[in-house]
Amino acid sequence: MNIWTNVFLSLLVIKIILVYCLNLRNQKHIKNAYSAIPNRFESFLTLPEHQKACLYTNEKLRFSLFNFSFSIIVLLIWTMGHGIESLTLWTQAHSPFTSIELTGLFFFTLFAGINFIIDLPISIYSTFVLEEKYGFNKTNAKTFALDILKATILSALLGGPLLYGILWIIKSFPIWWPYAFTLFAVFQIVLFFAYPKWIAPLFNKFSPLGNETLSLKIGTLMKNAGIDFKEIFVMDASKRSSHGNAYFTGFGKNRRVVFFDTLLKNLDDDETIGVLAHELGHFKLKHIQWGITKAFIILGFSFFILNTLSLSISFHQGHGLATMTNYSTLLLFSLVLPIYSFFVTPINSYLSRKNEFAADAFAAKHSKAEFLIRGLLKLYKNNSSCVTSDPWYSTFYYSHPPALERINALEKNG
Description:
It contains 16 helices and four strands.
């Protein structure tokens, strides 16, 4: 085994140990909290509601652990089990194309098809068993199948030309990473503009907000916050799930605020204003812009590293690939990168929680802390979100602050 093999397998073992330890710690913590509601939430949650949230959360944790274990096995088959190598050789022998770019597209189509077959049972179980068991699934077989079909067509229409362009750039330039990064970045920017107006409506129906009283309150909030949004939509999320949420999307003239219809059904106008103020806080405080900037920096660095490693025989052989092609290298790097980058997860989680606290403070300043607190409590309740978690687990993984920390901070700001 070369040094890459040793490093890869060592990091993989460390990741497996960390994931299992943190997951099992959180399961144990939630199990211990099952019999009694945490003091802060006694006046809001009933014991059956709290216990349902504990059971639902722990079942999701067990399922995520199974899914993680299965994904590691699949990763090892693709890498150390020479799966990418076998697929590369088969592609070279059977591809109907002569160009590297089209052969690469054929290769990735085969890989995507294999991955789809592998992942489909997991997706079906998550939707029609786990979510159904706790009363959240509203998706029927037709919607599920249509979503897959639409996503597949979109991936081919959008991802195909992008992948072709990247493969052409890799073939054409010795130092290709700046050009590949530029192409990918431009593609992402175009997607940011196109998604809310043309792509999202393929999956959901978006209707203008019809509540005039709420619209007036939203107008007052935006004026006070110095934000101008003209497009506020309600999305028919209820055709897939009963979970509620709201989000901000798009740029320029295509930017819009979107409420799930499930959220509007369960929250009153003031609570909705509190949730919206939080989302607007992310925009006003430039969290979204900084997030995109950070993503582009990471993307550029990743392309630079890939360019550096693309000619390394040791790197390829150390991860189970002997036949070096542009497309097999690209796939190998995309599969192993999460193992090497996993250990920055707690840093990303910390930065995300910091932004969430800041957006909460913005909401408390431009709305009322009480509105957001009430809205969050209802969301925790209606989504069966467990209001307690293991501190180590939440520190490592949570992109949002734990319920108690978040509400305590809001009460201080209020």
